[in-house]
Specification:
alpha+beta, three-stranded antiparallel beta sheet, 1 helix, CWC16 protein, Saf4/Yju2
């Protein structure tokens, strides 16, 4: 067991507890078999949620200079990114629907105007 502070914000998948960067936890270090980066061994770190004691595993991603949550939780920034992407996608979809509805109503107006102009008064 290694007493360490969390290197990133993590949300527990079990109880949705948010653990901020710098929270004190006890890591258990394990070798990741077959993974090295420029000759250096990669380690996986396991720790328990501070609220429900569910196990969470993270490992370093040296190519991107950050950590990746492997199981038991989600990176809080990643969760925010996903929510933002979903919101943008929904906004785009709504805008497309409104644009389509506007075009359709304009087309109906044009057709009605053409029909009224083509009718000759008696």
């Amino acid at each position: 067991m290694l007493p360490v502070t969390l290197p990133m914000d993590i949300c527990c998948s079990t109880c949705e507890n948010h653990m901020c960067k710098g929270t004190d936890v006890n890591f258990r270090k394990h070798d990741v078999v077959g993974e090295t980066y420029r000759g250096a061994q990669i380690f996986r770190f396991h720790f328990n949620c501070t609220k429900c004691s569910a196990e969470i595993a993270i490992k370093p991603d040296p190519k991107r200079s950050r950590y990746v949550v492997e199981s038991g939780g989600i990176d809080t920034l990643e969760a925010m990114r996903r929510r933002m992407e979903d919101a943008v996608e929904e906004m785009f979809y709504d805008r497309c629907l409104r644009s389509h509805a506007l075009r359709a109503s304009r087309e109906l107006e044009r057709n009605a105007r053409r029909e009224s102009e083509s009718i000759t008064p008696i």
